[in-house]
Write a structure and sequence with these properties.
The protein is an alpha/beta fold and about 170 residues long. Helices cover about 35% and strands about 20% of the residues. The chain is built from five helices and seven strands. The protein has a seven-stranded mixed sheet, sandwiched between helices. Helix 1 runs parallel beside helix 2 (about 65-75) and helix 4 (about 120-135) crosses helix 5.
Length: about 170
């Protein structure tokens, strides 16, 4: 039902590896840079722990992966929207993380058919799905020109609250 907020841009079909019913939960979208500082990684884990709710993100290295791992540590489901088919999960360095997510009641989700390769525009395209799935979005650490800014703009356009972590939060 969250995707109906996307109007004409809602996905026609979703491919899911994992627990399909996980899509019905309430989520916090936790996003950020692929090249975080040590503080950013700690802040991502702290945000997820503080919220205590399921997490949706993009499965990328950096802040996304830190948020997914923190959700797993907390024992709550986590979803990752892929920029390619679910069988072409990217990045490969997170393959074990993706398997853990699926085995723990979460899921990998894509609007692209299996076999579809991830590409630059598809990362930006999938960001609207992350924004629509989250009840709100938390940007942990991001560059001036980033996919995180794109996701935050989608969330704002959908009427979702967007929060950002100040640089000095972590201990």
């Amino acid at each position: 039902r969250r995707f109906s907020d996307l109007g004409l841009h809602q996905p026609y079909m979703l491919w899911v590896a994992g627990e399909v019913t996980a899509l019905e939960l309430e989520y916090a979208a936790v996003i950020g840079t692929r090249n975080p500082s040590e503080r950013g990684v700690k802040n991502a884990a702290k945000v997820v722990s503080s919220l205590g709710m399921p997490v949706v993100s993009g499965g990328a290295k950096g802040i996304d992966a830190a948020a997914h791992r923190a959700a797993l540590d907390l024992g709550v489901p986590t979803l990752a929207f892929m920029a390619g088919g679910i069988d072409r999960a990217y990045p490969m360095e997170n393959w074990d993380l993706f398997h853990q997510m699926v085995r723990s009641g979460g899921a990998l989700v894509s609007e692209l058919a299996p076999g579809s390769s991830p590409s630059r525009f598809r990362f930006l395209q999938r960001n609207r799905l992350i924004a629509a799935t989250g009840n709100f979005t938390v940007v942990v650490e991001a560059g001036y020109r980033s996919g995180s800014k794109n996701t935050a703009n989608h969330a704002r356009g959908l009427g979702r609250d967007v929060f950002a972590i100040a640089g000095g939060w972590s201990d």
